[in-house]
## 1
Amino acid sequence: MTGPELQLQTETDWRSAWQEFPYWLIAIIGFLVLVAILIFVNPEYRQAFDFIVPGIALTARITFFGFAIAMVIGLMAGLGRVSRNTIIRNTAITYIEFIRGVPTLVLILTVSFTVVPAASNLFGFENSSVPPEARGIISLAIIYGAFMAEIFRAGIESIPSGQMEAARSLGMTYTQAMWRIILPQAVRNVSPALGNDFIAMLKDSSLLSVLAIREITQRSRLYAGSTFRFDEAYLVLTFLYLSMTIGLSLLLRWYERRLGKDGR
Amino acid sequence: MTDREDIIVVESLHKYFGDVQAVKNVNFTIRRGEVVVIVGPSGSGKSTVLRCLNHLEVPTHGAVYIDGVHLEDKKTNINAVRAEVGMVFQQFNLFNHLSVIDNVMIAQRLVRKRSKEEARSIAMQQLERVGIPEKADAYPRQLSGGQQQRVAIARSLAMEPKIMLFDEPTSALDPEMIKEVLDVMLDLAKAGMTMVVVTHEMGFGRSAADRVIFMDDGQIIEIAPPDQLYANPQHARTKLFLSKILKH
Ligand SMILES: Nc1ncnc2c1ncn2[C@@H]1O[C@H](COP(=O)(O)OP(=O)(O)OP(=O)(O)O)[C@@H](O)[C@H]1O
Ligand SMILES: [Mg+2]
């Protein structure tokens, strides 16, 4: 390589490094640090923080269990979606389209106050014995199951048909080929999308405050309602969600880069 | 209905894809240990016929018998038949998430229900047979095309099939890798494997094939021993086709 070309190369590298620098991250971290300082030095913020933070355990629990159940529902519905059996496929599509056509908040109310009581009746236990937390988790799982079904479907369809043909031509059953050959590759391909849904679900767990579940959003509302310190309550709440989602999305970016490096 | 020596029997096979008739009334019989090469222009139905032999394609009419078992019979356990019929694809189709050894082991474990130890030892034998035991722990993406295709052959052989089907096994390979794959196939033919091979490699056809089938437009035009079909074809369409592939 000749001199001038080399120089040009470094110059563009330098400029693109300058342009690609993640200023947005600095701005967001700046905001988080600012609120953290406020919480540290200002007793009123401190008080709001101390009141809201115990709700994190509940927020985390709802998100984890909701996500785990949504994965199972999503996988089943996703497999149903690609099934060649007309009844199974249409059942899956009905579920997916139904959920996608109704707002999340409305679904939470419907599942909690209509579906769960009906199911309790059907299985013969007391409706009032189902705690609001469980209703919330079930609602989120049913809602996200539909979105994750579409992710799994896309993942399965992204695997070249030759993989299924090779597996079947060795004598594997459809189920064996699906679970041992197709799904491991599909899940790996869609793991970033699943991660995004985990973050989305963490945010949507705030909607469960309508069920009076005392996760962090509900706690902030209670705090604001009783003290009239709205700034403190909602800035602290924003701070908590943003730290969790930014942390998770940075983790996800790192994982995606690693995935990309490994090749596929 | 068939001689025990006739391991593959195809009777009036027809296959439609929508309005397209890919295969028109194809009949042939292949004897145990025979090596048959199929040639023909693109779209002539070679792959479709081959894929009917292990029921990857379901014929619209007609019957395929593998070792006396009628594939289109509802009561036939197709997975059991497929375990006896290996298939090698143009695009290799190795399982990308599994190491080479796991590629060769997985169907032995799931379909043949072999123990881990047994499956591993058979897998190693087959990898030695195709000449790449040292790649056992590599992943498909780390291998050249020729190496991947040899692993694919080992994967099929590990099932100890009675029949091996090859669909243009060297067409996706760089020229310098074609020989390593053909050599493995030649050894297999010498060892007495029943083989049906779609390939335009005349060298392989000449030295390994007992018969060559020429297909055009979904039909069998001519079946003859290789020296006769390649050197002295009886039909104008065969001549035309051969003159085209000989040009390059
Ligand atoms: N899955 C399919 N759906 C629709 N049409 C198909 C399908 N598979 C094959 N065909 C059509 O059937 C005909 C025969 O195809 P086939 O793949 O058997 O030919 P081939 O001889 O193997 O050709 P090539 O040398 O290109 O591989 C072609 O017209 C092809 O377009
Ligand atoms: Mg073909």
Note: Chain B has nine helices and ten strands.
## 2
Amino acid sequence: MATLSLRNIRKAYGPAEVIKGVDLEIDDREFVVFVGPSGCGKSTLLRMIAGLEPITSGELQIDGVRVNERGPADRGLAMVFQSYALYPHMTVAQNMGFALKLAKVPAAERDRKVREAARILQLEPYLERRPKDLSGGQRQRVAIGRAIVRAPKVFLFDEPLSNLDAALRGQTRIEIARLHEELGATMIYVTHDQIEAMTLADKIVVLQAGRIEQVGSPLELYHHPANMFVAGFIGSPRMNMLPVSVLESTAAGITVSLPSGAALTVPSTGDVAPGTALTLGLRPESLRPDPDGQLAGTVKLVERLGGLTLLHVETEGREDVIVQIEGLSMLNINHPVRLAADAAALHLFDAAGMALPALTRHSLVA
Amino acid sequence: MQQSLASRIAIALIGWAVALLLFFPIFWMVLTSFKTETDAITASLVFHPTLVSYAEVFQRANYLGFALNSVVIALGGTVLALLFSVPAAYSMAFHPTPRTRGTLLWMLSTKMLPPVGVLVPIYLLFKFTGLLDTRTGLIIIYALMNLPITVWMLFTFYKEVPNEILEAGRMDGASTWGELVHILLPLTLPGVASTGLLSLILCWNEAFWSLNLTSSQAAPLTAFIASFSAPEGLFFAKLSAASTMAVAPILVFGWFSQKQLVQGLTFGAVK
Ligand SMILES: Nc1ncnc2c1ncn2[C@@H]1O[C@H](COP(=O)(O)OP(=O)(O)OP(=O)(O)O)[C@@H](O)[C@H]1O
Ligand SMILES: [Mg+2]
């Protein structure tokens, strides 16, 4: 059982404030992923939760108890570092058993727990090796094993997979998801990998410049981004943004005119007068070539990925739009093309970058 | 890099020349110590080796007493210096403040001050505190003298240990003491050992403070050598015999610890 509660958490290094007031509730057994651009404060926030970095102001509660003043070991957390941070002079077994040894757990019990963790992570053949004699993936598993052995209430991961190659990363990601199921622990995971965030998270926290931009389930962030930053950050390739102006606002949605002059009705609501400048967001995967499409342009680049094809289209408004198509596309460079968009997948943002509320919520999002 | 034969020969020759240059005084000293006083003032390489000088040196002074002082003071000074510099370097390497770099440079700058500049104040301090001619006094002054060097050396060794390893230890429940004993010291042992060795050698060979602050009770081997140079004119053979006996222990010690020293001084502590 572990719930975490962050209340107006701030962090300043001298005059520079890097975490600017974070409020967050984390439920028991929840898998929470922090994402955001480099330098936005993900690691700093995680390290404050871990107790490795003092909290400048605000309150951190674990299971309803303030823990700001507690040392890292007294918070019931375990952390997996990006660099693994294994003890080079200890064997795998000693690495995993170090916390128990410090806690004066009897050797027999210690050994049993280390073996149990080694079994879960398939590390049994390597127990007597030193970290330097292991592969990157094995080291990663030892680092996870070291966390498991302590049976913590909360696991913290700081970009644990970023030093692994693509294949191993996918494999370990599945492993971590399985562990989360098996151990039933609360997990907080920092990454800048979209796929990790979307596949692992119960809840994604998008950070930018020390502030939370949005908190929600992966699908909620994808289908209902709160603002342009989240819309651009979640989803790959990124959402296309076009400047538009309001024609009229009706019960069916807001009708806007595209740079080319064509009109499009977006199922959003909002108090917008005709003529207001807005930004239209179109996901590459919601666009498709269609002779009756409202958006006209010319293909400038074709990227064939095998299962997918990416078209870079220069529209009449001179804006570049990326279109993602299932399978192969016969379109070639300099082909004129008309594009249609799935109306339900369109987004409108006001001048401040905030999303106008959609008329209907996506069926999979509560 | 491929080097031409000529340049390799040149480098070898220079290397040998430097080694010979460094070794020659020691060689000459050992040679002279086996001569009679009359032979000693000649530069001749042909002579009848004799142990007369050694016998006289032994007769005149209590070698073992001086040697014991040297051992106690060098070990004491080194242990005391490490006792302070291990935690000091830890704090500077892993919990630096904006002033850490400045402090380090300032510490090193104290080594640029000629010791004779502070001789009088130190002498008076020692006099008032009753530390003159005591081993404790020399241990303290040696530890202080080597502290900037040991802190610097340990600092550079510690710097090679990633902070995250210590943080992992902290997450695992290690106290500051636990971090030092279970993680940092095992990881930097070669570095700590070479720091200790260097400090031992510096303490052993130190002559300025030992000559000025001791007379009979606490005098180490450097004072022992000096006692053969001053009063009755120069007796080269006896002086050489005394010097040979004074440097022999540290020379042997240095020989055996050479590998350790070089390793610690040239390679990173971990990896
Ligand atoms: N010790 C420090 N002193 C001053 N500023 C710091 C310190 N540590 C981090 N920062 C600043 O805090 C901000 C957040 O850093 P942090 O490491 O949390 O970013 P991040 O989101 O983890 O980035 P990345 O994805 O690159 O790991 C950065 O702008 C960084 O420069
Ligand atoms: Mg980071």
Note: The domain at 237-349 of chain A is CATH 2.40.50.140 (OB fold (Dihydrolipoamide Acetyltransferase, E2P)).
